[in-house]
Amino acid sequence: MSSTLFKPALLFSALFPLSQAVQAAHQAESRDTLIVSASATGIEAEKLGRAHSLISGAQLQRQQIRYVADALRQLPGLAVSRTGGPGGLTQIRVRGSEANHVLVLIDGIEASDAGQGEYDFSGLQVSNIERIEVLRGPQSAFWGSNATAGVINIVTREGVAGEPQLSLNSELGSDQTRQLGLGLNGGSERLQYNLSGSLRRSDGYNISDFGTEDDGDINRTLQAKLRLALSERLSLKFNSRYVNRDSDTDDQDFAFPATATQGRVIDTDSGAASEEWINAVALEWQGDLLRQQLQLEQSDNDRRGRSGSGDYGSDSRRQKAAYRISYDFDSDNATHTLTAGVEHEREQFENLLPSSPDQAGSRKRSLDGYVLQYQGEFAERLFLTASARQDDNDRFEDASTYSLSAAYQLANEVRLHGSLGSGVTNPTVYEQFGFFPGRYQGNPDLKPEQNRGWDLGIALPLWNSDSSLDITWFEERLEHEIITVYDSSFIGSPANSEGKSRRQGLELALQAELTRTLSARASYTNLISQQADGQLEVRRPRQSGALGLDYSTGDGRSRLFLDAVYNGSMQDSEFINATPETRVKLKHYWRLNLGADYQLNPQWQLYGRIENLLDRQYEEVFDYNVQGRTFFVGLRAQF
């Protein structure tokens, strides 16, 4: 299985003098227009051919958003599913994909659970976030497995040389919600630091229609980022993020023989505790033409829980070593960047379920990845990016992926953009090895899922330089989709689907400065997402969108905002023997948030908001209640 594609090229690139550091992440902090997750060196947004979205930290603060998942609801092409309250499993799907088809990075570090292959957004607060980058479409040619449908990169704040600055945020609200956040930023020309911590606690509400128990959540988040200049060209970076959570949950009743509540969410004394810890250290060197980076990273996800079927737990770990080198050069009226990279990744998963000793113990697997990328800029109008990657896997088939994208700036400021590429998602450890005899059996013969897609779009300027409309059409085809099949005893097992799953649609994104004090933003998605047999995929609305209005007074001291999110009707699975169908239709809904803030003085700001203003009752996931109208008030300070 082991292929040698790209290895000679990498050997040749290694002969270059030692002189590269992918310093783009540090440089990008001062520029909201730079997309670090698109390449090794970063690309300015207007030069990127891939469909993308950016959310700045300032926008997150203006909209008083508490969780990253709620910010992502407002972007085109993304669908969010949360099982109940803030502590419930929260999945993000891009362009009709599965949740594990989206690569989630925090400061460029892969954050997904190595066992389940996806990232649970329920614990990701927005505190200390500089910006959120979203790339839509296959990105595996640069990032490897799981970037099948897109990449979400959360970039946190970095330290800035100067006097120490202290930030404070405190909030109280409905359901006995209380939150406290602290941040410290500063440093010298040689050493910069950013330290932050956040504690958020809520007694919650009842996510089940059966019983009266409230389901709360406690979230503790700590982060530290350091940058040390070892010399004029050489620097050392350290990044560590720790999240500790305790969440109340309820169970779905899968009892056999059937009960009156079979398939429904019922009140139980269930709960989950989790620890997420990601760490990275990077050595970076930047010369005049060459840059290099050597990065070591590790992510740990430890989970413990209790449910009606007994206690459970797992520990998963991902370790990665990556080296990249880039070379810049010019030609007639053009600039070019060549990048080569190599990485080694190892995943380890340990099942701690005591009721299945034959499936307990540790499972390991590893891969080696080889990357080549080209970026070109011609006459300051045409911008090209091309990538190719080879992954050598030790437990399943190897994979080769590619990516091409282009943007062209017309004379009238109209921008054309398009991309073409492929992606892969490896089988998860759960899918390969099972771990739940009698309920779910693994399949060691699974093939990686393969996605091919393209998009084409146009960005149109409107009445001023701060107003634009972006229109994108996309199509994707997924092969070897991993589905779950059940035998007569209702024991599930994964298998590769025959045929191709089809995803296609239209994405609109609008930014508009209506007046000097009033701005608007809007998004709309029309999506078709079908399995190979033609059946619609669950939890993907055909139509979705968002609208936001932001008004500030002339002196900028006070602000008022209104945010509306629309989720069209969609299908979900249900397991109720009393009904002849295995699908249920979830109704469409609108959710409105209203908020305001007032600058008391240069240091202190008072703010407040009403969430679910119209007190709508709806379902994001079948039979899980959502929170009704809630109220929050808070204070921010900078010293």
Structure description:
It contains six helices and 35 strands. With 639 residues, the protein is mainly beta. It has one domain: TonB-dependent receptor, beta-barrel domain (Maltoporin, Chain A). The protein starts with 6 loop residues before the first helix and ends with a strand. The N terminus is likely disordered.
Task: Please tag this protein with its features.
639 residues, mainly beta, Maltoporin, Chain A, 22-stranded antiparallel β-barrel, 6 helices, 5% helix, disordered N terminus
- Round the mean pLDDT to the nearest integer and report it: 88
* Class based on secondary structure composition and strand pairing: mainly beta
Distance between the termini: 58 Å
Would you tell me which CATH topology applies? Answer: Maltoporin, Chain A
CATH superfamily membership: TonB-dependent receptor, beta-barrel domain
Count of separate DSSP helical elements: 6
**Total strand count, please?**
35
When the domains are counted, the total is 1
- The radius of gyration computed from the alpha-carbon positions, rounded to a whole number of angstroms, is 24 Å
Shape field: globular
The major pleated sheet works out as: 22 strands, antiparallel, barrel
Question: What's the CATH first level?
Answer: Mainly Beta
Which CATH architecture is right?
Answer: Beta Barrel
Runs in which pLDDT lies below 50 for 5 or more consecutive residues are 1-32
Helix content: under 10%
Strand content: over 45%
